[in-house]
Fold:
Amino acid sequence: MGFVDKLKRGPAFVKEAWAELKKVTWPTRKELVSYTTVVLVTVTLIAIFFAVIDLGISQLLELILKAGK
Structure:
């Protein structure tokens, strides 16, 4: 399939994509706020978890390296 053939299929693709978007059940504002809150809280908790793990590993390595001197 050449470049020109792909260009000719462009409008058909857009039409099909638009038809699929019309079938989507979009979330209500309340659902959207709820889902967004869950994502932000989850990401924050995971970031804190990894920060604590990183700090612990750093402290452990520092302790090991000081003991080796």
Notes: The chain has one domain: 3-68.
